Structure formats: structure tokens, C-alpha cells
């Protein structure tokens, strides 16, 4: 059996050490997500053959190890060790380029891509400029918002904004009638994020008009040139607020990063349409590896 340790904020320096040396583009490796969603899933870790191995025990997932690289045979050995107590275990987040370099992986795992869990990645410059006919409507909605709510403010999120962010998230979910297992978990992840704000590497902004919050976004560094936006909520009664928070977030980050990862659509039709409409530069594929018997 693997000797696993539950992930806590005390392990952030260890996570940073590995992820800076061996960066991953998938949002599931973002430290904010590992901490806040990890609190829901019970994420644990171990160091195995000089690799950081993160396990999601709720779904019996072993995340592709962070390190210099293991052979397909070694990966199967790792998964088999965990399978001793968890027979349904799968290897997840297998990098697409690693499969090309390691063709014998198909001798040990049956690979499957899940489109619902692919990350959408955009050029931040494009999200700021919004050039072209396909993005003209978004630009017009931003202009309408600016005219309707002149002098709106962009302020950074701090830990003292916890109650404001949680109440607004709850209002957003309630008014849009957004329920379901994932969305309930997302609401809990937002609460976890605000409760852990000063302990984890995370940032965010609020769009505020006359002391009324109209939108917010929460994000954190993914790699040296990529940032991941974990949460984005807006007031549907304030036309253009959805487009403004996206635009202001991109402007806020444009001097530090090239790429913005806006995470997955979870197979939700409306969310897929919304994320696709911003014309992503590429998708980070979510690939499972089911051990072959």
C-alpha cells in the first residue's frame, strides 16, 4: 500500500517545488484547486521514486505523477500498488505528449479521453482586445455596461471579503436555479477558497458599482506563463457583467501571463457554448488510463 498523507496548506512549498520544476497545464494541478477541491475529495499525496503522486480517494484517481518521468511499466506498478485496496483505481491526467513519447503505454492501460473535463486555454491578449466579428457582440455588451454603470470599480479580493463573495455566489446559484452534485461542490469549493485565502497562493478581483458587487473572479498561477481562473460569477440582472468580468480579469493579468486557463465545462451545454464563444487557443485534454487486466 502507498503511505499517503492528506494534503494541507503546510505542503504548499512541496507542491510548488515539484510543479515549478515539472509544470502541468491541467487546472487539476493548480495548487488552489488541490487545496480547496482537495478538501472536498480528501486529496492525499506521497513521494514515490522521486515523483510527487497525488491521489483523489473519493473517485479512486491516481494523478499522473509530477517529476522527471516514469516508464509505462513503472506507472502500472504505481497504480497496481494503490489498486490493492482500491480495485477500481484509474490513472488520470495523462499528458498528451507523454503518450507519443511512450507508445508502450497501451500495453498497460486502456486510454480514454473525456471531452467534458478538457481545459479551455486562451491567449490573454485576445481576451483583452476582443478583435474580429465573432467577438464583436461581447465588445458591445462591455460598452453597454460601461455606459450604464459609469465609474464602476475593480478592486482586489482580500480575506475580509469572504462573506460578500460567499453571499454573492449563493445568490448567483439560487437565481439561476443552478443545482446538482458538481455545482453544490463548486459552492463548497468557493467557501473553502475564501476560508483559506491567506494560506494559499490565490488572487481575485471584484467588479463593484456604487457599493454593489456585480461580478468577481478568482485565479492563481498555473505555470510561469499561464494563469488559471477557478471561479467567475456575475449578476445576471446587470447586462454585460459576464463579459466585463472576463475582460477586466484579462486586463488585470495581461502583464504577467500569456495564457488564461478557464478550466472545464463539465459537459454543461450552456457553459460549453459560453467558453467556446471566446475562441480558445487550445484545449488541455483530460485522459484516463484504465489498467488492462
Account of the protein in words:
The protein is of the alpha+beta class and 293 residues long. It has 2 domains: 5-117, Gcn5-related N-acetyltransferase (GNAT) (Aminopeptidase), CATH 3.40.630.30; 119-283, Gcn5-related N-acetyltransferase (GNAT) (Aminopeptidase). 37% of the residues lie in helices and 25% in strands. It is built from 10 helices and 14 strands. The chain has helices spanning 12-21, 31-41, 72-83, 96-101, 124-129, 136-148, 162-175, 181-195, 241-253, 269-277, and strands at residues 5-6, 44-48, 51-56, 61-63, 90-92, 109-113, 119-123, 153-156, 203-209, 212-223, 226-234, 259-261, 282-284, 287-291. The protein has a 7-stranded mixed β-sheet with strand order 1-2-3-4-5-14-6, with helices on one face. A hairpin with a 2-residue loop joins strand 10 (212-223) and strand 11. Helix 6 (136-148) packs across helix 9. The two termini are 19 Å apart. The model has no long low-confidence stretch (mean pLDDT 95).
Amino acid at each position: 500500500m502507498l503511505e499517503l498523507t492528506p494534503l494541507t496548506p503546510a505542503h504548499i512549498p512541496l507542491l510548488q517545488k515539484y510543479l515549478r520544476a515539472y509544470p502541468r497545464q491541467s487546472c487539476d494541478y493548480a495548487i488552489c484547486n488541490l487545496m480547496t477541491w482537495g478538501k472536498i475529495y480528501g486529496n492525499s499525496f506521497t513521494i514515490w521514486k522521486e515523483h510527487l503522486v497525488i491521489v483523489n480517494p473519493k473517485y479512486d484517481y491516481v494523478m499522473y505523477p509530477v517529476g522527471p518521468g516514469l516508464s509505462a511499466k513503472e506507472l502500472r506498478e504505481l497504480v497496481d500498488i494503490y489498486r490493492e485496496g482500491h480495485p477500481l483505481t484509474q490513472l488520470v491526467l495523462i499528458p498528451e505528449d507523454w503518450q507519443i513519447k511512450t507508445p508502450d503505454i497501451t500495453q498497460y492501460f486502456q486510454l480514454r479521453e473525456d471531452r467534458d473535463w478538457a481545459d479551455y486555454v486562451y491567449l490573454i491578449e485576445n481576451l483583452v482586445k476582443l478583435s474580429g466579428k465573432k467577438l464583436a457582440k461581447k465588445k458591445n455588451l462591455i460598452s453597454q455596461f460601461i455606459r450604464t454603470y459609469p465609474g464602476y470599480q475593480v478592486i482586489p479580493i482580500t480575506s475580509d471579503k469572504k462573506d460578500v463573495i460567499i453571499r454573492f455566489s449563493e445568490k448567483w446559484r439560487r437565481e439561476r436555479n443552478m443545482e446538482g452534485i458538481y455545482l453544490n461542490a463548486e459552492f463548497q469549493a468557493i467557501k473553502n477558497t475564501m476560508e483559506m485565502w491567506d494560506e494559499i497562493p490565490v488572487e481575485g478581483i471584484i467588479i463593484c458599482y456604487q457599493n454593489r458587487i456585480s461580478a468577481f473572479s478568482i485565479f492563481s498561477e498555473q505555470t510561469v506563463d499561464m494563469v488559471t481562473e477557478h471561479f467567475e460569477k456575475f449578476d445576471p440582472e446587470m447586462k454585460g457583467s459576464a463579459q466585463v468580468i472576463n475582460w477586466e480579469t484579462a486586463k488585470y493579468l495581461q502583464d504577467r501571463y500569456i495564457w488564461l486557463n478557464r478550466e472545464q465545462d463539465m459537459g454543461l451545454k450552456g457553459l460549453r457554448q459560453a467558453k467556446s464563444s471566446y475562441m480558445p487557443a487550445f484545449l488541455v485534454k483530460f485522459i484516463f488510463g484504465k489498467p488492462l487486466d
